[in-house]
Each structure stands twice: as C-alpha cells, then as structure tokens.
Design goal:
The protein is α/β, with parallel strands linked by helices. The protein folds into two domains: 266 residues, Zn peptidases (Aminopeptidase, 3-Layer(aba) Sandwich); 111 residues, 2-Layer Sandwich (Alpha-Beta Plaits). The protein is built from nine helices and 16 strands. The strands form four sheets. Strands 1-2-4-3-5-16-6-15 form an eight-stranded mixed beta sheet. It has a four-stranded antiparallel beta sheet with strand order 10-12-8-13, with helices on one face. Bound molecules: nickel (II) ion. Nickel (II) ion binds next to loops.
Amino acid sequence: MAALLDWMREIRREIHRQPELGFNEHKTAALIAAKLQGLGIDFKTGVAQTGVVGYLGTEGPTVALRADMDALPLTECTGLPFASETPGVMHACGHDGHVAIALGAARILKEDPPKGSVVFIFQPNEEGSGGAKPMIEEGVINGIDAIFAGHIDPRYDAGKIVLTPGVNNAYTDGFHIEITGRGGHAARPHEAIDAVVIACSMVMQIQAIISRNVDPLKPAVITIGQITGGTVNNIIAEHALLWGTIRTLDDGTRQRIFERLRAVASAFAAMYGALIEVKFHDGYPPLINHARQYETAEAAAQATVGRDNVIIHPTPSMGGEDFAFFLEKIPGCFIRFGGRKAGVEQFPLHNPHFDFDEAALITAAEFMAKVVRMEIEKLAAEAV
Ligand code: NI
C-alpha cells in the first residue's frame, strides 16, 4: 500500500504546485486524464468546461464518486517545497487532495473491480459559481444509482472519518444592498443624505434580524463581508454598497430573513430619504445526506478505520457545498476525512497557511473504494 500513498502524494503535490481557479482547471484536467489513461479507465474531458468523468465497468448497479478540482484566489504562505507556483492562486481547501483521493480509489477499484460500474466525477469550480449544476445539466448523473463525495477536514486527526446524518451543509444565499443618498460637502451634512452613515447603521440593524426575528433554536448566520462607499474624506458619499451572505438550514428561516432584510431596507429608505435596493443571489441548496447511503458510509468507515476512529458529528456545517445539487437528484452521502497535521499549528481551510496530513489520502481512498463496493453489493442484492 505504500506505493499507492506515494502515487497519490505525488499527484496531490503536482496539483498543489499548479493550482487553477474554477472553470480554468486545464492542467489539472490534463493530469487527471493522463492518470485515468495510465490506469486503463475510459474517460471524457471537457464536461462542464473543464470537468473529467471516468468510467469503470458498463454493467450492474452504478455508483459514482465526485471530487472537486479548483483552487482559491489566495497567495500561498506555507513555504512548502511544493507550494503554489502561481501567485494569487492556492489550493487552500484541500481539493488537490480530493482529486488524489478519487484517483487512488480508482486505482484500488481497477485492480479489484466490483460487480457493477463506477463513475468518477472530477468537478470544476466548487468554490465559485458552482460546477455541479452544469455537470448535471450535461447528463453526468444519468444512470447513476448512488453517489459519494468527501472533504478533508483539518479539525480532526488524519485517520478519522467524520459523518453527519441528515443535513450536512447549509443554504448559502448571497445578497447585496445598494444605497443611494445625496452627495455633498463634508462640512454641510444637512444638505446631503449620507450613504456611509446609512450603510453603517444598516450593518448593525441587520444583525438584529438574527437575534430578534429568527427562532433561537434555528441556526442562521448573516455576514456582511464587504462594504464600499465614498471617495475621499471631505465628500459625503452618495453611494454605498453592502455584500453579504445568508446561511440557514431550513427554508422557513431563510424566507423570514429575506422578508426582514427587505423590511429593514425600506424602513431605512424612509427614515433617511434614500433609495435602497436589496438583491438576493441564489446560492447552493442545503446538502442533505440520504439515510440509506449514510448507513453504507458508516459501515464502510468502520470497516476502513475501525469503530473508534469513526466520529459521528451530529450538527451540520453552516458552510455551503455544491455537492448538494447532486443529492437533490440522486441518493448519496458526503463524508469528511480528518487531516490535522500532528505537532504543528493547524491552519483552517481557506487560510494562506493551510496544509493537511497526507496520511489522510490513503484513509480516504480506501474508504471511497470500500463504500462504492458496499453500495454496489447492496444494490445488486436488492435487484435479485
Ligand atoms: Ni472545499
């Protein structure tokens, strides 16, 4: 097995060195294609622009594995010997590892094929506008009975497998608020309508939606991550713009927040005599694990790392994951693989210092091969 880990580590490091942003994963796709070819697995490239889909077997039940491929717009600060050679782009979410894991599972399954078919979906652009939806629209999930995907998680030690039954990830809705006041001289505020003052007080008021309008037993987050307005210190700003994201786990809470945000905006418009427009941007739906595939995943996890190393994490993440689009169409389960590096400071996902323990690669690949095999066996037994 050491040979397999070395092989996956090399793949991961090569991708890490040449990170590419969403829908730009050309070198990554070429590397995946070359590895699948080397394994003797048929594949298609150019799916949803830069995606690659591998096919092992043509008969029996069909189970898919999905790995995301894209990097983030960050400049790497790890100082690793295989650090990004592209300034401003970095694999800081472990997707380099996810590709290596799926290829590792492909190698295991090719050497000892299951009694069914396996589809390996290498998906572009998870971090940006989403690559899952266009892949589904191009028909990649046709004929697939079940699907699994995973994510490296630096909060848990390598060798641990983490599972969450039911809701695993949140709705991620974006929004922006455009405030138009009336520009003027900084020393004569009574002649102007100050968009910056309105923006600042709106940011504070919007947080009260969470504390005062949402059921305290229903998780919800509103983050305004960007605020712009004004030009210089002696001009009262005519325009200000707020960009934010809303995370919820149920549609009722989500709709309540939409409604309250609109109400806050129109109240501020009336109060200050400004024009305030709110626009919502659809994000990812919540990722909900299907009970049956969750059971298969739990059994496969126990068979891979032993009961003591399987962590059942009962609460969902408020982060988004576009694997949710696949689970809206076909049953499946999302799994997390511990990747904390021992003996050093561990940085979180999306941090320019992020790295993970590559021992996670072998655990994850063995698990992925096992979960596919077990699900195929279940489906085959049912079909008899
Ligand atoms: Ni990620």
